Amino acid sequence: MPTTKDFGARAHRLARERGPLCAGIDPHGSQLLNWGLDDDLEGAERFVLTLTEAVADQCAFVKPQSAFFERFGSGGVALLERVIAECRKAGALVILDVKRGDIGSTMAAYAQAYLDPASPLAVDAITVSPYLGTGSLQPAFDLASAHGKGVFVLARTSNPEGKQIQMAKRRDGRSVAQGVIDEVNLQNGDAEPMGSFGIVMGATIGACAAEGDARLRESTYGITHTTVSQRDSAHDLSQFNGPILVPGMGAQGGRPSDLPRVLGAAANFAIPSYSRQIAQPGPATASIRTAVEGLQEECRAAMGE
Ligand SMILES: O=c1ccn([C@@H]2O[C@H](COP(=O)(O)O)[C@@H](O)[C@H]2O)c(=O)[nH]1
């Protein structure tokens, strides 16, 4: 039974309060150099703590990219723990972009690492990969449900290489991505205002199926989105009832106007995510805050809020 303490409900509430934007915290070598910092642990620390101070009380969502911390070894992981704690203290929901996926028994250990509140790396939600089968992610769904956490499953990623596998056709006619979308949505049931199980849809991908296409599928083939999607060029989000993390904004070319194009009516579930672009005006925190405010407004307007 979903409650107001669940990730979906908390995300919905905070996005309305602070805006839908997710601030990515990626201590990328080139970003450190842009700020006049060395590409080492000390530089990364200055970079991420400055960004955290600028965005964590302003944004509903903060998304550290684990890889950029892990490259510094145990010191980087300790820094990640610190960023998580600071962001949560400032009231932001932390989505750790860690893209885990493994056989069920190992997946349970990954879930424990990030979704068990007793873990030093506990966050509000994580990204996971469904390429060992969406069913292999069940331990993460279960632990998230038990602790009011969220899970975002990669469906259509923002990189051009993703299309070949994600848009491949399954035997039932749906694309691999559509199968993932439908399977994740089963976890959400009829949760209100939305469930805690989300998908990742890059801002740089093709448009969603128009409403008319979804109706045509039903009337012509007597099928619904949960069985077969007849189009392979588009995805159908008309029944999706969870948060949609949208990376690829800014540096990769995605714009707020892409949100309704890619997500259709589900754009109101969008969490548009920017990493490099929000660090660009730094290191002055006031400049970062002003840029984030502008992007929040552009995203809200594009989402029809
Ligand atoms: O499909 C995906 C999934 C995740 N990402 C991650 O988002 C940020 C994007 O960084 P930008 O600087 O805003 O381009 C990065 O951490 C990726 O690993 C993605 O880009 N696409």
From TrEMBL:
Gene Ontology molecular function: orotidine-5'-phosphate decarboxylase activity
Pfam families: OMPdecase
Catalysis performed (reactions): orotidine 5'-phosphate + H(+) = UMP + CO2
Domain Orotidine 5'-phosphate decarboxylase: 20-291
Protein name (database record): Orotidine-5'-phosphate decarboxylase
PROSITE patterns, A to Z: OMPDECASE
Family matches, as Gene3D superfamilies: Aldolase class I (3.20.20.70)
Pathway: Pyrimidine metabolism; UMP biosynthesis via de novo pathway; UMP from orotate: step 2/2
Family indicated by similarity: Belongs to the OMP decarboxylase family. Type 2 subfamily.
Keyword hit for Lyase: yes
Species of the source: Glycomyces harbinensis
Keywords tagged on the record: Decarboxylase, Lyase, Pyrimidine biosynthesis
EC category: lyase
Superkingdom of origin organism: Bacteria
GO biological process: 'de novo' pyrimidine nucleobase biosynthetic process; 'de novo' UMP biosynthetic process
Record-listed E.C. numbers: 4.1.1.23
Keyword Lyase: yes
